[in-house]
């Protein structure tokens, strides 16, 4: 069983000619088969954590470690992270000119699996996964992220997740910009991957609503660049009722 271990992670960004520390000692362990929700106010550093794990060059690791089964993730290139079994939805947030969804998915699957999927079975696999996500087959021929709506981006994300079957998946704001129907379809996709039993999921969100569809095993409150409280699913209910105020008083938020 794969284990992602984040230890005392400190991360800074350069902004306005100054160095700003955003992550201030994040500790978290995610094992295959577990679902963790990270919840917190806007600006607390949740996306910074996701980008840092994805290896985004804008974010400088100034302290701490991230390992996957003892292997140093921070030393890995973006592609190596994917091959090691990490799925980071925000890895390719940009348009990729001239690359269709279909080709992009096959290239990604080839990188992750170490060999190109057989074309006939692959086409079928993609078609079926798209049907489950209520996606128009024509979507496969569009260029990656070109003119994608918020909902299409999220579906594309879950389509990748279903096809790539990572060990650990990190999903940032998977619920933002989705109407209720799309939220349900996307959540069902995440749950299908979960039920396969061999993925660990880190679900990062500001809102509690996605947790009506995806039940986390562990809930963490993120404020001021670190995890300030951890608990079970009942912590999400408390956050839904009370909000984040008690965590951000006294300037605890970044
Ligand atoms: P969250 O996802 O919890 O809303 P973010 O990680 O997006 O929080 O942002 C945390 C803080 O870091 C904010 O104050 C934000 O302005 C700052 N920040 C994040 N990324 C950058 C960046 N690339 N350049 C400058 N500031 C950034
Ligand atoms: Mg520290
Ligand atoms: Mg964010």
CATH architecture descriptor of the domain at 3-90 and 166-248: 3-Layer(aba) Sandwich
Report the sheet with the most strands, covering strand number, pairing sense and barrel closure: 6 strands, mixed
Order of helices and strands: EEEHEEHEHHHEHEEEHH
Tell me the total number of β-strands: 10
Instruction: Report the CATH superfamily of the domain at 3-90 and 166-248.
Output: P-loop containing nucleotide triphosphate hydrolases
Structure class: alpha/beta
Bin the strand percentage: 25-35%
Q: Whole-number average pLDDT? A: 89
**Strands of the largest sheet, in order across it?**
6-7-8-3-9-10
**What is the 3D form?**
globular
| First-to-last CA distance | 34 Å
Give the names of the bound compounds.
adenosine-5'-diphosphate, magnesium ion
> At the third CATH level, what is the topology name of the domain at 3-90 and 166-248?
Rossmann fold
SSE arrangement:
Layout (H helix, E strand, L loop, with lengths): L2 E13 L2 E14 L3 E5 L6 H9 L5 E9 L2 E2 L5 H7 L1 E3 L12 H13 L5 H14 L17 H15 L3 E5 L7 H16 L4 E6 L12 E6 L2 E6 L2 H9 L2 H4 L6
Parallel strand pairs: 3-8, 3-9, 6-7, 7-8
Antiparallel strand pairs: 1-2, 1-4, 4-5, 9-10
Helix pairs in contact: 3-5, 5-6
One magnesium ion binds next to β1.
Give the key terms.
single chain; 254 residues; alpha/beta; 8 helices; 27% strand; binds adenosine-5'-diphosphate; binds magnesium ion
Give structural notes.
α3 packs parallel to α5 (150-164) and α5 runs parallel beside α6. The strands form two sheets. The protein has a six-stranded mixed β-sheet with strand order 6-7-8-3-9-10, sandwiched between helices. A four-stranded antiparallel β-sheet has the order 2-1-4-5, covered by helices on one side. With 254 residues, the chain is an alpha/beta fold. A hairpin with a 2-residue loop joins β9 (218-223) and β10 (226-231). 39% of the residues are buried. The two termini are 34 Å apart. The chain is built from eight helices and ten strands. The chain has a domain at 3-90 and 166-248: Rossmann fold, CATH 3.40.50.300. One magnesium ion (MG) binds next to α1.
